[in-house]
């Protein structure tokens, strides 16, 4: 009990000094809990949606989820006659056919897209009694006739749609215009999908192009019958019918919901673990802040600890007292962090709402594991950080503590630190060097991971030793410009290298990752643009930013544009099965089908043969690694089972080089060869188009192409300059998201600088009073503290940026194995971050400098 009382008194006596450490714990725990609550809430929202919108039993074609099914733009269908067969099954109360598609684009009267910007789907289907279970018509009426459509309320509100407004649906079967007859609201949370309803004949016509077919059939179980019983009876009823393309997929509501949730879970897990990774990074940075806090508190309380030892406290009791204070800090910070995490989750939900994904606080989900995980994280991080200071406190000799207001430095520990840090850093550098010599990306990635971790730990360990040299250099370059005040700031930073090293290390971690990702991102863009310049011979690329496939009508529009010399169609054929001459099989391969002009549009090097020959009838090309793996040469004949089609024997006419970025690993053949074996209704749509302008007509052709696709706003026309800019924008957006998440670690590191300075001011209270007494002005004192902060921030930035650029260069060498051969260091970003670190140092010193300037001189001198 004595230890506990002492810990509580010590914590309360120094609660102001521990506040910033508590904030670090709070932020780390808040981000972890916020991430868990946010992702759990998304799971709850989608689980409710899937459970509510799933019929008791759903019947759909067996290949409804196949890649080639979605690639055609027309969903697979069932004959409408199956509805009657299913209704006759025992235990079925009713059955109703539905037809829907997501391979469509809907635009308003101004040809502006009504598709969600959040990545949620645009769904067009028929209005059924089943839909009426989850939708309520709030305005107007259900659609009747081909000229009417009903829209969901969220989409109507977002785009300002009202009854009578015109919309057009653009799909593979053409463009269909209609007026809004009604608006329906979801009775459950709609996460962001845009939904449009037609009557059944109209939906069949515009989505699949034929009558008397459905994409799925919704079955309602009779009272007293379970879904499993009805599924069994429906399966038996359909056993003797003519199956669509060989079979049916029959799922209960639970099975359909589980399948939909599993499809969504992969995307959500990526988001969840990425955010948790950044939260743990912030916790790691927080370790340095808490370590510094307790180290300085132990130093400042040396006399107090000595008195405790003198009156009988054992080393164990001193150790336990400091750790108990840390435990209190961890528990309080974690408890506040759990509450802040729930608030953060709500803010994330609001932010997602602004981006188009609707999440309701009614579905807010806080699992019992969330606060437990948050508290465990906060407490463990705090205790780990406080362990070394507590251990050091327990070693204080009572007499030494009573004689000396500070704790002497351990020279032997410094030598061990230097030796260990040097060994770790050199070992990490060797691993990074091994990365650049790897022959396979898998082997290289292991060396890269080992090198990053080992060099990071090495820099952390050797940081206090580096601080002495780096701060002196920075002092010569920066601080000496400010005369005696600058020299005093330098000496203050050098006074405790261990403290300076730990404070700088916190900032170093975040900035190292920023520098690494900046180098990798810039190198990827530079490599891709270099490859484009070397290999892409086309003038224009036409594709959809959202990944929509290109309809035949849009292809015809491109072909009809003035000034166009050639148009190349480009299709991806998934799930091909290739049988080699020796009988070995490559399953689920992707084939790239293009027009022969693609050999001009993409200048790809070959190891053997001529790529143009691969576009001859019954011919193809393979890439180098594929040829080596299966012992193929020019002239080899392979049997290809085409997705959704027949089987053909193709001759290998070329082997392409693996030293490329664009279409790396592609298996090429002509569209005509693919069409010979794949029925027209099963042929995938074009994933992109390439167009070449007539000589001297590039500008006119560019304008003509944009005009030709005016009725198809889902597609974008890009020349090579546009394409490069799009690459930069995509990489920039991705990096901005990462930088925003890394900002959490940087904020915690800045709190560490603030805390170090604040505690340093308290530690040097008497010294500050003496300096003021002999003539140092308040302005000079504040400047001295600000300069000390700046040099610590620059020290951390210099180490972090240097380390990060080394990581980035090693990672680029690994990417070079994938064809990204250009190393580019984004110097404007690196220099901007370095200069920004000085600004961060200035801002971090504002409060401590202000406090120091307001000290009473006589009171400060009298302080012990």
Automatic annotation (TrEMBL):
Q: How does it sit in the membrane?
A: Multi-pass membrane protein
Known InterPro entries for this protein? Answer: ABC3_permease_C (IPR003838), MacB_PCD (IPR025857), Macrolide_Exporter_MacB (IPR050250)
Q: Where are the transmembrane segments?
A: 20-38, 273-299, 322-348, 368-390, 416-435, 447-479, 500-521, 737-762, 787-807, 827-847
Kindly name one Pfam family recorded for this protein: FtsX
Subcellular location(s) per record: Cell membrane
Q: Does the keyword Mitochondrion apply?
A: no
Tell me which residues make up the MacB-like periplasmic core domain: 20-236
Q: Which UniProt keywords apply?
A: Cell membrane, Membrane, Transmembrane, Transmembrane helix
Name the domain of life this protein comes from. Bacteria
Q: Which residues form the ABC3 transporter permease C-terminal domain?
A: 278-398, 740-856
Decide whether keyword Transcription is in the record: no
**Family assignment from sequence similarity:** Belongs to the ABC-4 integral membrane protein family.
Q: What is the name of this protein? A: FtsX-like permease family protein
Q: Per the UniProt entry, what species is this protein from, by scientific name?
A: Streptomyces chilikensis
């Amino acid at each position: 009990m004595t230890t506990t009382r002492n810990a509580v008194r010590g914590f309360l006596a120094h609660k102001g000094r521990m506040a910033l450490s508590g904030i670090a714990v709070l932020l780390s725990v808040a981000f972890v809990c916020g991430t868990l609550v946010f992702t759990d809430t998304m799971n709850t929202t989608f689980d409710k949606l899937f459970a509510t919108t799933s019929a008791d039993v759903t019947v759909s074609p067996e290949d409804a989820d196949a890649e080639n099914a979605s690639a055609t733009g027309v969903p697979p269908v069932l004959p409408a006659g199956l509805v009657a067969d299913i209704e006759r099954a025992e235990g079925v109360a009713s059955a109703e056919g539905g037809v829907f598609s997501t391979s469509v684009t809907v635009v308003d009267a101004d040809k502006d897209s009504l598709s969600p910007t959040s990545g949620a789907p645009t769904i067009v289907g028929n209005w059924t009694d089943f839909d009426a279970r989850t939708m309520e018509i709030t305005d107007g009426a259900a659609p009747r006739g081909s000229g009417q459509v009903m829209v969901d309320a969220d989409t109507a509100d977002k785009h300002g749609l009202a009854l009578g407004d015109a919309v057009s649906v653009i799909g593979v079967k053409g463009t269909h215009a209609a007026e809004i007859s009604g608006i329906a609201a979801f009775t459950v949370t709609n996460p962001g999908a845009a939904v449009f309803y037609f009557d059944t004949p109209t939906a069949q016509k515009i989505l699949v192009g034929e009558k008397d077919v459905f994409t799925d059939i919704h079955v309602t179980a009779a009272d007293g019958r379970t879904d499993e019983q009805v599924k069994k009876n429906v399966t038996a009823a359909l056993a003797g019918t003519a199956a669509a393309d060989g079979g049916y997929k029959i799922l209960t509501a639970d099975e359909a919901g589980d399948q939909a949730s599993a499809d969504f879970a992969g995307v959500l897990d990526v988001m969840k673990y990425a955010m948790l990774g950044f939260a743990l990074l912030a916790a790691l940075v927080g370790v340095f802040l808490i370590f510094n806090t307790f180290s300085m508190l132990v130093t400042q309380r040396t006399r107090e600890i000595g008195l405790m030892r003198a009156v009988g406290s054992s080393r164990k009791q001193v150790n336990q007292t400091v750790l108990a204070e840390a435990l209190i800090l961890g528990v309080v910070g974690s408890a506040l962090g759990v509450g802040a995490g729930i608030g953060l989750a709500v803010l994330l939900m609001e932010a997602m709402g602004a981006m188009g994904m609707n999440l309701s606080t009614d579905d807010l989900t806080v699992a019992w594991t969330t606060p437990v995980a948050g508290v465990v994280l906060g407490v463990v991080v705090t205790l780990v950080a406080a362990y070394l200071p507590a251990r050091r406190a327990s070693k204080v000799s009572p007499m030494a503590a009573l004689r000396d207001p500070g704790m002497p430095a351990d020279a032997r520990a410094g030598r061990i630190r230097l030796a260990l840090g040097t060994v770790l850093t050199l070992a990490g550098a060797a691993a990074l060097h091994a990365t650049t010599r790897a022959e396979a990306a898998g082997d290289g990635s292991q060396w890269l991971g080992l090198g990053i971790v080992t060099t990071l730990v090495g820099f952390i360990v050797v940081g206090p030793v580096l601080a002495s040299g780096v701060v002196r250099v920075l002092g010569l370059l920066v601080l000496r410009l400010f005369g005696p005040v600058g020299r005093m700031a330098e000496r203050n930073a050098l006074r405790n290298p261990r403290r300076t090293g730990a404070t700088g290390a916190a900032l170093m971690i975040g900035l190292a990752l920023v520098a690494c990702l900046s180098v990798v991102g810039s190198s990827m863009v530079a490599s891709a643009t270099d490859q484009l310049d070397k290999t892409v011979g086309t003038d224009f690329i036409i594709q959809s930013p959202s990944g929509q496939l290109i309809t035949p009508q849009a292809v015809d529009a491109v072909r009809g544009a003035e000034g166009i010399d050639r148009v190349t169609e480009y299709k991806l054929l998934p799930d091909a099965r290739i049988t080699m001459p020796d009988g070995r099989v490559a399953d689920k391969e992707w084939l790239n089908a293009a027009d022969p002009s693609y050999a001009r549009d993409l200048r790809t090097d070959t190891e053997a043969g001529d790529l143009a020959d691969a576009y001859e009838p019954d011919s193809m090309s393979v890439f180098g690694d594929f040829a080596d793996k299966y012992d193929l040469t020019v002239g080899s004949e392979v049997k290809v089972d085409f997705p959704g089609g027949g089987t053909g024997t193709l001759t290998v006419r070329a082997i392409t080089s693996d030293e490329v970025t664009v279409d790396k690993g592609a298996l090429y053949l002509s569209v005509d060869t693919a069409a010979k074996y794949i029925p027209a209704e099963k042929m995938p749509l074009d994933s992109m188009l390439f167009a070449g302008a007539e000589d001297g007509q590039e500008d006119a052709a560019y304008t003509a192409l944009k005009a030709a696709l005016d009725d198809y706003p889902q597609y974008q026309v890009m020349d090579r300059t546009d394409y490069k800019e799009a690459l930069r924008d995509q990489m920039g957006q991705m990096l901005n998201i990462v930088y925003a998440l890394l900002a959490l670690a940087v904020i915690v590191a800045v709190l560490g600088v603030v805390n170090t300075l604040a505690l340093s001011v308290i530690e040097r209270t008497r010294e500050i009073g003496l300096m003021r007494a002999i003539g140092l002005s308040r302005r000079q004192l504040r400047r001295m503290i600000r300069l000390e902060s700046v040099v610590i921030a620059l020290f951390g930035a210099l180490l972090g940026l240097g380390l990060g650029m080394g990581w980035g260069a090693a990672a680029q060498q690994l990417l070079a194995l994938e064809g990204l051969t250009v190393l580019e260091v984004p110097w404007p970003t690196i220099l901007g971050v370095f200069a920004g670190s000085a600004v961060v140092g200035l801002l971090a010193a504002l409060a401590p400098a202000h406090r120091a300037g307001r000290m009473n001189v006589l009171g400060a001198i009298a302080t012990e």
